[in-house]
Design goal:
Helix content: 40-55%
Strand content: 5-15%
Structural class: mainly alpha
Strand order of the largest sheet: 1-3-2
Order of helices and strands: HEHHEHHHE
Number of strands: 3
Distance between the termini: 13 Å
């Protein structure tokens, strides 16, 4: 995707979803993310932050709607606090531009 953007679509910005360091460390502590050094080395550091505000309500509905998220919710996130509360605290989406 990055190569296609560089070659054919140079006027379009490309952002990849990236998680802030605090969230990565929290998810690693509860067993939701791998602690492999190779993965950590390749993990992108956020360069952009977008406020989603009221968009958090559709985000909460999406977490409950998608089957792939249900396992994540049951596995670890809800052990700490209710899913809707955890997701509502994430008022920003983080992105990284490819280098």
């Amino acid at each position: 995707m990055t190569e296609l953007q560089r070659v054919q679509f140079t006027d379009i910005s490309l952002w990849y979803v990236a998680q802030p360091g605090r969230l990565v460390r929290l998810l690693q502590a509860v067993g939701q993310l791998s602690r492999e050094s190779e993965v950590d080395r390749r993990r992108a550091v956020p360069t952009q932050r977008v406020f989603i505000g009221a968009g958090v309500l559709p985000k909460i509905r999406a977490w409950y709607a998608y089957r792939s998220r249900r396992a994540l919710i049951a596995k670890g996130l809800s052990r700490l606090l209710p899913t809707c509360l955890a997701v509502s605290m994430m008022q920003f989406e983080y992105f990284a531009e490819p280098a």
